[in-house]
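re: ur question from yesterday

yeah so i grabbed the chain u mentioned. its 401 aa long if i counted rite. heres the sequnce exactly as i have it in my notes:
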Amino acid sequence: MSRRTILIILLIILLIVVAAGGAVVLKLKVFSTSGSASAQADTTVTEDEPPLDLPVASATDQLVASMTLDQKIGQMMMVGFDGSQPDAAISESIQKRQIGGVILYARNIVSHEQVAGMNAALQKLAAEANQPAKLMIAIDQEGGKSRRFEDLGPYYSQPFVGEMHDTAPAVAQQQASVTARELKPLGINVNLAPVADVSAGWGTIMDGRSYGYDAAFDAEIAAAAVKSYNGANFICSPKHFPGHGAADGDSETVLPTVDSDRETLEGKDLLPFAAVIKQNAPMIMVGHLVVPALDPSETPASLSPMIINDLLKGIMGFQGVVITDDLEMGAITSTYQVSDAAVAAVAAGADIVMVSHTADAQQQVFDALKAAVATGKLHQADIDISVGKILDMKQKYRLEK
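ran it thru and got these structure tokens back, copy pasting raw so excuse formatting
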């Protein structure tokens, strides 16, 4: 083939390519000047792209979205009452304010049969009020010197467990299992235990309530108890975060201080709480303690964003329900209005506030939490997250409607 022929063939190929390019340009111009054609072009371009995965609201999210603010605030409160049967005050709390949790004390207990009947009546009130889930009915049946029933469950002391050395974890599991098994028929579904505090020694505030003064050993025992409660499908609540053992007073009457440095706290007091978190404790109670090494502002732990949000939820990764100790204890009332403390606790990350004694304080707390949402002190989104966690816990532990 001659050189001239080759040049002619190449020229023809070039003209074909240019012509095709012009057609493409023409086609693009047509699609850009016609609205319908443009829409068709857009459809063609995106036709092969996968659809967006829009999040599907969970059943709990849908339930929370359907609830009134009163119902939401009610789920975030645990209250006490006087007497051996539901009185007018607790009936109104459950039915009008939709309170979702009740705590029992010795003042409410006459016999096993009476407690079972009383709790059935409380649950009936909640059902009649169309509450979104059953009530949490809680008690402090720790063992040791703090227990409400003297004739129920393993009522020998927790320090006794601590003295059993190698067999202690198995004994702790057995104690928790027996406690859950004997509380359930009475209509009690929450035990505010185990005590995860590390004792500071003989005669100190947690002596006779905690498992002992060896932090690593206490962590093993507390985790064993939580494992057994979970196995029994029974809600437990290790306490009193971040650790009451070294406190210089009793929070029942005064606001105590824990003066330990952060290194000591991390190597001792926080160890049992890390262990129960790893064991999937459903709920943790925060104590009324000033711990300057964790919050230099000396805000009580139960009201401290640094201790609840930053440490417990953030650094330690706890994803369960956070409940305060009773806000009517002297540690709080000596310095704060109970209603103000409740708002501060929820703002700090608490999901449930406990108000155990007076109907007036319970009403004030309910009103203050509602008002705080209305004024923006508390955010609706945070309220919804707390309520969602509470309802998820209730469902997991079979307290759904």
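noticed a couple things. The chain has two domains: 3-46, 64-396. also The first strand starts at residue 77 and ends at 79.
anyway ttyl
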